[in-house]
Every structure is written in structure tokens, then in C-alpha cells.
Design goal:
Two copies of one chain form a homodimer.
Chain A (H helix, E strand, L loop, with lengths): L6 H16 L3 E2 L2 H6 L14 E3 L4 H14 L3 E4 L16 E4 L6 E5 L4 E5 L4 H7 L5 E2 L10 H6 L7 H4 L2 H4 E7 L5 E3 L13 H5 L8 E8 L1 E2 L3 E8 L3 H13 L6 E5 L1 H11 L8 E8 L1 H17 L3 E6 L2 H12 L1 H7 L5 E4 L9 H12 L6 E6 L4 E8 L4 H20 L18 H5 L1 H14 L18
Parallel strand pairs in A: 2-4, 3-4
Antiparallel strand pairs in A: 1-2, 5-6, 6-10, 7-11, 8-9, 8-10, 12-14, 12-15, 13-14, 13-17, 16-18, 17-18
Helix pairs in contact in A: 1-3, 9-11, 9-14, 10-13, 14-15
Family (chains A, B): Belongs to the FAD-binding oxidoreductase/transferase type 4 family.
Pfam family, one (chains A, B): FAD-oxidase_C
Protein name (chains A, B): D-lactate dehydrogenase (cytochrome)
Chain lengths: 469, 469
């Protein structure tokens, strides 16, 4: 008869084997564990039992095989910037920190692609590419790892022109739940050779496999870049300008919405003095002639929608200052209320419904007892409300929850999604059935069971628990 | 004790139930069945046992439920233009012809999307959109149905600018193997809400579910369009021009390669008198200013690679004539040898390897006893050899098979794919393991088993049989 092993004993035995395998690159230090059980949002820390630092795909496979033998969860960790509780060890388990897998493995300049280990960050890759005339375009703000960005289908301010990770991942190397190593695709720019495994793993948040290498598309550095700012009388005219710009096929590099409250926060945090009104930040990129034409077209559209006060930033430094301010929005909001936490919503809707959705969200948050502001990747129909709450105050958390639920409900009614780019984690799992329908979520469950029958890969994420939704 | 029912009796009983369900929209006429058991390539006819013509998603679901009850295969049929035996009823079964599901269900001009029934063809959709200023961009040449294009991840001449069906499908309605109806996604332009079911079904060739409705992205009609032709001293300089054009970020609308033999065939078939040399067909699209700039940039690149004889086609009629000639290439080749069949290869490689792959393929075909020529969507690294063979002559078939096998082997060694846009069907299934590795193909098998445990959805397609690869 087999001796019954307690869960604690089982985990301890696993950690011992991981130590034998990885030496000091497996740790149970409390601070390390806590760091690996949190992202950057309101979700409470749920620390894993141990943290491993592999150096290669083969080591990740070894870790996963040991976890599978012990039936213990594994959670991949990139830069720790996720926002929906992706990293919470809801059932304990082993965190696999990918940051030491930081090698750029190949740059194929002629083919416009690069292959990196999953722990390479987007800024690191772009620094590596500096002398090639090429760059990696996706910019979620945070200096996330490429593996994390692929796993959460990240996008950000440049998606209006270059798409999201869905469009920019060429191929992945993935460790499956049983430790097998799979290459999802060739380096061909397009293929119709079987099921699209690449897109299956992009956005699967470590629940179907662990991404260890990423091949991404690169783009040529534009000849010139120009930023512009323009303010509007109201949200509707701001969004209308964005819609008309997209409809005219102007390939803007970026097109970001900030409401008056967001501009106020950014002004204070970054020492700017922008007019506190609904605003669009533009970036134009291309040949000088193309930029001139595009600027003119967009200025005309904006004027038609009552725009005031165009201003341009042509110098690299001035542009960097502007976009830095936009990217610091999250921290600008936090600075309004030291010690508080920023809850970022993430609805994405067909653009025709965007203005109404943003206006309703702002109206509902107007009398909240905490700071709130709206920003948006408005060309894609994606916007974020930031609620700066005291997570120790249940009333504030409940209010933010109600605001988010109302905003999600409205987005789904408009034919949109509860999460444009932050992913599901466990924070949004409750909305999955409302968005996709029970049948589609059942199909997702079939995929999960087929690829991870033990449910050891980031359990409790993406798919709602039986009592949710 | 249950009476044993023969396969024939079982199918007959199913057909009787389908007749009761659909009346005359279920037929067993020999000519209908034979028409539905062939595509447009060299694969022999394998007729289904009956053909059904549903009018709605619910009717498709009803047909699939009946087939599942009787454990009989179902094969979706669009325009019948597939090239790798996708439609062959290898194990008999029911063909579901989608052509009467031909309704454009919604056009959302502001959101740049449209939802259609799967039997709507791309030309039909574009005719419907004529007055909106918008168009559907993917152009595989054939007037395929949108459902068929999604199912095979089609692309074609416009993919260099607009991407493939992978990038242009927003959402699908799919009937699963048990008759359940699944909507794969919202209409949001981007989402990170769970597994990418849309991309899972795009390219699955009716083996994971039957696509009944398709929501696609639309694009704004460009202000102006200009075509140009340019000839080169050899294949390498032609391809180099295409690579440099892509690297410079010139957003060409189309950029097509034809070798001297292809030009000869096209000249003869379409009454043109183009110089019989390696050639690029270009299309530029955008504002007049942008087109002027792009033309100049590309002309300079081409000159640097030894180009001769630029000529332009600015008028709509002249342009249409040129592109019609390109699109008629398949028929131009057939016209070289009346009664013969055109076998189209479909490798796609990283562009740095493209010239060598095309040159080797042409060299190997030079002494073949049948006409052969090369064309390519050269900005994507995708090229097709056309072998015009007598399928009644086993020696010719064997030679074409050997040529294709060598070409595929070379493409895979270069990091490419055996099929850029034609799909797998059963013609390419034998190459899937060589391209993806046994582990990745095993993952595909797990997906297939999870979603179609009875193996009734287009069996024998995409995944290799146990004795292949």
C-alpha cells in the first residue's frame, strides 16, 4: 500500500528535486516568492512555493516534467507587469522566472524577423537592433518580456499601425504540460500548413504551454517621425476624429486619447502644461512627404470636428517627453494618491460605440470617492479607465468592481470585449461566458483538457471556475 | 441483439433523414456528387454520397447532428476552387454546399467590418460594398467563398499589404462536430479574452468545425491606384528588388513575380506583348502624393538592381487588363496544353532564401516533358511553380511529384513552409511532420480529437494518416 503523501510533503519533495536540478537557481526565499505572486494591479499577492530561474528551453522542460510528476502547478513569470492576477499562485506551485533566458538568438534583417529567448524585454531587443535600421514595434508601455507579451496577446499604443502580438509573432517554442518541446511554425511570413498553433499559444497566458522562445516580426525604422497634440470640445468629437482618420486609411503611427482628468494627472506628474480638455496625441511616421500629407489630412478632419490648438513636436527629445508622459499615465494616476493602487479597466469596442462607452464610464465614475480618468488606444476602440483606490477599503474595492462590471456589460452589449490587451488572468474570468457564450467557453475547456489534462499549467486562469459566469 | 447495419444501409438511412429535413435541397445525383468531389487541381474525383444545400447556420447544425448520429463524414464545399484535394470524400459522406448561404448580413462602415454567410464570394461582397467607399482586400484570384477562404487561410496577391485571412477575419460562426453553434469572438478589433478560437478555425479546412458566418475587416478604397511593370536580367535581381522594397517599408498594394515562361504563357493567352524576362508587376495605392513618392522609391531600388523597361498603367481599364492577365496565369498555363491539368506548388520561404528556391525549382523543371513556369507573391516569400501535366500518364505524375517533393524539401530547409496559401488537404499532409516536427503534429492531433472525437469532419485532411510522414 502506498503511503499517503500530504500536499506539503509532496511540494517539499518537488522543491528538493528542483534544487538538485538547478542548484541556487531554485529558491524558496519569502521575498522572492512574494515578488513572484503579484502583478501591477489590485489583485492580492498569492505567493508560489518556490521560484526557478532556468537558462534554456530544456531546463524549462525539465522543471515542467518534475512538476507534472508531482502534480504541482507551474506559473511562468516574465517582467511581473501583468494586470489581471495572471501570476497569482492560486493553488500554490512553482514560479518559472524567465528573466535569465535573455539571449537574442538570431536577427534576420533581410527577412525582417528576430528570434529571442522569452525573457528578452522589448527595450532590450530594440537596443540590440539599434544599428540594423529595424525595430520591434509593439509597445505596451511597460518594458515587458517578449514571452509575457506573447502569452497575454499584448498590444498598446502602436497597435493601430502595427497590430498586436497576434500579428507580430511569427513562431514560438513552447514547453507542453508533459515537458515536450514544440515549435509552432516556420519562419515563413504566411503559411496554411495546418492548425495555427502559434495563435493558439499567443494569449493563452501560460495555461496551455510555457513559451520559451519567440520569433517576432521587425519593421523598418521610418525615415521621419512627428508627434502632434490636439484638443477637442468633448469626447464625441475626439473619437469622431479618430474614426475618420482610420476610415481615410491614414496609417498613423499612434493615436491616443486622454480625457481632461488624465491630462491633469499627466501635467502634474510630468511637469507639462497641456490644455486640460479631451485630447488626441498623434504620431506620424514615414517619409517626410508622407508625413506632411498625413498631417494635413488629419488636421482637416480634426478641424471639421471642432479641434482647437494643434501643436507639433518634431524634435526627438520633445517627442520622447510627450510619449514618456503618456506612458507614465499609470504612475501619474498613482501619484495623485500616494499608497493607493490603480485599477485599470480594459474594454475594447467597435469604434462606432466608443464615444458612448467612454462617456458613460466617465459619467458613472464622476462621483466616485477616488480619482478616475480615461485614456484610450482610440483607433482600435480600446480604452482604459484608471480607478485609484485604497485596496484596504472594501467599499472602494466594491465601487470599483461595480464600475468595471457596468463598463464591461456595456462593452459586451456594443459587440466588444471585456479585455482588449490585458488578458483574463483570474480577474476577468468571470466575464468570459458573457462575452463568448457557454458553447465557446466549452470549446476552450476542451482545448485546455486536451493539452493540460492534469491542469498544472497556471490553474485558475483564463477559464472561469465552475461557479463563475 | 442489435441488427448489424452495413455502411451502405447506414448512409442510405441518413440520406433519407436528410431528405426529410431538406427536401430537394438534398440530392444524390451523380453529376452533383462528382462536381462536389473535386477541386481545381490534379487530385482525382472522390464523390460524396449526397450533397446538401442548407440556407442557415441552424440547418448546417441539423445536418451535422444527423451525420454525427450516423457516424458519417461531412465535408463543407464553397466554390470548389481548392487545390490540395480538400473536397475529396476519401471515406464517402455528405457534402454541405454553402453557396445558397449567400446573404450579406451586416455592413458596419464606421467599424470597417462586414458579416456575411459563408457562401458569399469575395466579388459578391465587393459588389455589395461598391457605394460605401470600402472594400474587402484579400484576393486569391479565384472568386472563392468567404467561408472557403477562411477555412483554407487563403491570401493571394494583396497579402503583402493587407495580410491573409488570418489577419482579416474578425470573427466566425462555426458548427461543431456535435452540432453546437459557436461564435468565436466579438467584433472588437483586438481582444485578449481567452484562447484565439477565430485563428484556430481559420485554416482548419473543415476538420474542426464548419464555418457558417464570417465577419471580415474592410479597408477604405484608396484615393488612387497605379500599376507598373518592370523587367530584370535574372531572378536574383528581381527578388532583390522586392526584398529591398519591403525593407524600405514601401506599402505596395501588390508585387508579383513572373518568370520568362510565365510571361510567355500570359502573353499568348491574354494577347499581351510583354518582354519575356523575369518581371515584377506592381500596384501602388493611396493618395496621389504617396503613390508618386513610392513609385520613385521603388524605381530607384529597381534601377539599382539592373531593371529595364518600366511601364505604367494608370487607367482603370489598362490596370484591370494587366491584373486580369496575372490572375489568368493558371488558365494561361492550361491553354498551353489543351486537356491537361495544372499542378500548382505553393512553397513560402523567408525572403532571403526566395531567389535560390525559385532558381533551383526552375532549373530542376527545365528538362521536364511538360510546360512549367514560376509566379510568386514575392513580398511574402511565396511562389508557385505550375506543372501542366497529363494526369493519365503515370510517368508525368511521378515527375511532378518528385519536382514538388524537392521544392518542398528545399523550402523546409530554408525555414519555410510546404504551403503558403493553398492549405494541406490530403495533397500536402505527408509533409506536415517534416515541417512542424512530430511533437507539433501530435498537438494538432490532440486538438482534432478534442473537437471531433468521432472524426466525422472532413476526415483524412490536414493531419497525415498513420503511415504518412
Amino acid at each position: 500500500m502506498l503511503r499517503q503523501v500530504s500536499s506539503q510533503e509532496n511540494t517539499a519533495a518537488l522543491v528538493e528535486r528542483l534544487r538538485a536540478f538547478l542548484g541556487e537557481r531554485c529558491t524558496t526565499s519569502v521575498s522572492e516568492r512574494e515578488h513572484h505572486g503579484r502583478g501591477e494591479s489590485y489583485h492580492p499577492v498569492r505567493a508560489p512555493d518556490a521560484v526557478c530561474y532556468p537558462l534554456s528551453t530544456e531546463e524549462v522542460a525539465g522543471i515542467v516534467r518534475l512538476c507534472a510528476e508531482h502534480d504541482v502547478p507551474v506559473i511562468a513569470f516574465g517582467a511581473g507587469t501583468s494586470l489581471e492576477g495572471h501570476l497569482a499562485a492560486l493553488k500554490g506551485g512553482i514560479s518559472i522566472d524567465m528573466r535569465r533566458m535573455d539571449q537574442v538568438l538570431a536577427v534576420h534583417a533581410e527577412d525582417l524577423d528576430a528570434t529571442v529567448q522569452a525573457g528578452v524585454t522589448r527595450k532590450q531587443l530594440n537596443a540590440h537592433l539599434r544599428d540594423t535600421g529595424l525595430f520591434f514595434a509593439i509597445d505596451p508601455g511597460a518594458d515587458a518580456t517578449l514571452g509575457g507579451m506573447a502569452a497575454t496577446r499584448a498590444s498598446g499604443t502602436a497597435a493601430v499601425r502595427y497590430g498586436t502580438m497576434r500579428e507580430n509573432v511569427v513562431s514560438l517554442t513552447v514547453v507542453m504540460a508533459d515537458g515536450r518541446i514544440v515549435k509552432t511554425a516556420s519562419r515563413a511570413r504566411k503559411s496554411s500548413a495546418g492548425y495555427d498553433l502559434t495563435r493558439l499559444f499567443v494569449g493563452s497566458e501560460g495555461t496551455l504551454g510555457i513559451i520559451t522562445e519567440v520569433t517576432v516580426r521587425l519593421h523598418g525604422q521610418p525615415e521621419a517621425v512627428r508627434a502632434a497634440i490636439c484638443t477637442f470640445p468633448d469626447v464625441a468629437s475626439t473619437v469622431r476624429t479618430a474614426i475618420e482618420t482610420v476610415q481615410c486609411g491614414v496609417p498613423v503611427g499612434r493615436m491616443e486619447f486622454l480625457d481632461a482628468a488624465a491630462i491633469r494627472a499627466v501635467n502634474r506628474h510630468s511637469g507639462l502644461s497641456l490644455a486640460e480638455a479631451p485630447t488626441l496625441f498623434f504620431e506620424f511616421a514615414g517619409s517626410l512627404a508622407a508625413i506632411a500629407g498625413e498631417t494635413e489630412t488629419v488636421a482637416e478632419i480634426a478641424r471639421g470636428n471642432g479641434a482647437q490648438g494643434w501643436s507639433f513636436a518634431d524634435g526627438a527629445e520633445e517627442r520622447a517627453r510627450l510619449w514618456h508622459a503618456r506612458h507614465e499615465f499609470h504612475y501619474a494616476m498613482l501619484a495623485l494618491r500616494p499608497g493607493a493602487t490603480a485599477w485599470a479597466t480594459d474594454a475594447c469596442v467597435p469604434v462606432s460605440a466608443l464615444a458612448a462607452c467612454i462617456e458613460a464610464a466617465c459619467r458613472e465614475a464622476a462621483d466616485a470617492p477616488f480619482p478616475a480618468a480615461a485614456v484610450g488606444h482610440v483607433g482600435d476602440g480600446n480604452f482604459h479607465m484608471s480607478y485609484v483606490i485604497d485596496t484596504g477599503d472594501p467599499a472602494e474595492v466594491a465601487r470599483a468592481e461595480r464600475l468595471n462590471a457596468a463598463l464591461v456589460k456595456r462593452a459586451l452589449e456594443a459587440g466588444g470585449t471585456c479585455t482588449g490587451e490585458h488578458g483574463v488572468g483570474y480577474g476577468k474570468a468571470r466575464y468570459l461566458v458573457a462575452e463568448h457564450g457557454a458553447e465557446a467557453v466549452d470549446v476552450m475547456r476542451l482545448l485546455k483538457s486536451a493539452l493540460d489534462p492534469q491542469n498544472i499549467l497556471n490553474p485558475g486562469k483564463v477559464l472561469p471556475a465552475a461557479d463563475e459566469g
